[in-house]
Amino acid sequence: MQLLKADFFKLSKSISPWVLFILAMVSAIIFAACSHYVATGRLGFETASGSLSLFSETQMMALLGSIAAGICLTTDFENKVIENAVSGGYSRNAIIINKMVSFFILIALLYLPYVIITMIFASTDTVFSNFIPTSTLNILSEAATQEFTAGLFGNILITSSVSLLIFISQLMVGIFYMFLFKKAVLVIAATYMTSLILGPISSLNETVHSVMAYTPYGIDLSRLTLVMSGEFIIKSVIISFLFIFIFYLASFFLFRKAEVK
């Protein structure tokens, strides 16, 4: 608990998490605006689904999440914070869990702007287009045709929570890379490249897809809708938690044998 408090204090005093949060907020606003303009015919579908798709939560979570893993957490190795924690008597398992919790909270903070956007516009009659099948646009486009009720609010929370869990599990490799490389630049590059490569690679062929389907990178994000099935939710949650646990174990065995210096 002391390690976690120390991490929260350090992050609250650091400008990096807040800069990343502002970037996520700006991206969420631009993404929602693009969706609205496509729906009203003021923006072409090709333009929106091209370069402007970079503002989607799938792209921004991969980019900003990778930066968060490097700048906000891995610098503790470079600044000897981890070394001091080990020499101070904290177990390596406690250090790993602390970093995981801090990282999960950071990812949730970065995803929050997209949830806020969906909550705000779900209660209005503003029209949106799901020109890219992401959870944010699926929610916005579907909610526009429904009356805002407690049931709709609950469905938005469920869809957003499952989506967040998938993103966290995809970025969990960043924790492993942190204990592997111990350098912020390497962690950022490796985490981002992993997310960038493993997502599209799952659609190469049936064999690759059948394997990747058991990882969070192979989960069909277009199915993250307000009417997604219970089976899809359960499968996504199980895959995500298993992936998180596997990389927790990998990080633990790696850090347990590593020399901290």
From TrEMBL:
TM helices/strands, residue ranges: 18-39, 100-122, 156-177, 184-202, 232-255
Domain of life from the UniProt record: Bacteria
Keywords: Membrane, Transmembrane, Transmembrane helix
Name of protein: ABC transporter permease
Organism the protein comes from: Oceanobacillus jeddahense
